[in-house]
Amino acid sequence: MTIEVASVAVAQPSRLWVAFSRNPLFWLGALLLAVIIMVAVLAPLIAPHDPLEQNIVARLEPPSAEFLFGTDNYGRDVLSRLIYGARISLMVGFVAILIAMTIGCTIGIVAGYVGGALDQVVMGVLDVMLSFPALLLGLMIAAMLGASLQNLIIAIAITEIAPFARVARAPTIALKQQDFVIAGRALGFGPVRIMGVHILPNLISDVVVMSSLWMASAIRTEASLSFIGLGVPPPTPTWGSMIREGFDNILDSWWLAVFPSLAILLTVLALNLLGDALRDAIDPKLRGE
């Protein structure tokens, strides 16, 4: 029995790797995201200029050999600010989704496992949160907390808690009726152990798939909040604030808004491609099994 279980455990990652290798969209998304992450990590080494250095003489210069992506209203290099802005967008998206995933999954698993009045109360609160569009809810929270990096992460994390909770709750309700959970209770295992050791591993794949997709949503929300002035305060470069700065000069200085918009597009595209590939690889129906 032990040998059979071990062989299944080894075969599962093997089947997933085969599914990934046959999906060209996975490789495209992985390559795009790897390049963006590498650019963010190596920003001090590859940025051609200081992103905060002002040069009024070179104000609003179009793309050239010296400034590949042009300069902004203060003569700052757009390419350098774009590279450093990747750090903010990726960090906000990753940290916010990590917080939302941890809190949301905990709430969903506990509500689904305990059931009864607790489940009804929790679902009522989640339904209220889901009734607001994510951007509107994030806007209200960010406006109350004020503009800062920490408040931006908190606002985006709160908007994503309810979706994670719902994703975790539904399979928990089904799993708690399974024989292995009933056997665990018969052996005297406590609720915390059953939820953490027996239920959580069986729904983690769904959560990972959704986290990649919702990280793309978090990056879009961060850009939207930065665009309206509720993101990281200037002069720290962020893609959303760069688009906002270029909005007033969109007809004369197109590069100010176009390049950060393309950066957001490529990042969201990479995360969505990875999320779709993960879903196709994990779901046996989509693999044709």
From TrEMBL:
Domain of life: Bacteria
Gene3D superfamilies with a match to the protein in the record: MetI-like
Pfam families: BPD_transp_1 (PF00528), OppC_N (PF12911)
Membrane topology: Multi-pass membrane protein
Example GO biological process: transmembrane transport
Domain ABC transmembrane type-1: 86-275
Keywords: Cell membrane, Membrane, Peptide transport, Protein transport, Transmembrane, Transmembrane helix, Transport
Cross-referenced CDD domains: TM_PBP2
The keyword Cytoplasm is assigned to this record: no
Spans through the membrane: 25-47, 90-114, 254-275
GO cellular component term of the entry, any: plasma membrane
Record localization: Cell membrane
PANTHER family, sorted: D,D-DIPEPTIDE TRANSPORT SYSTEM PERMEASE PROTEIN DDPC-RELATED, OLIGOPEPTIDE TRANSPORT SYSTEM PERMEASE PROTEIN APPC
UniProt family annotation: Belongs to the binding-protein-dependent transport system permease family.
Protein name: Dipeptide transporter
Annotated source species: Bradyrhizobium oligotrophicum S58
High-level lineage: Bacteria, Pseudomonadati, Pseudomonadota, Alphaproteobacteria, Hyphomicrobiales
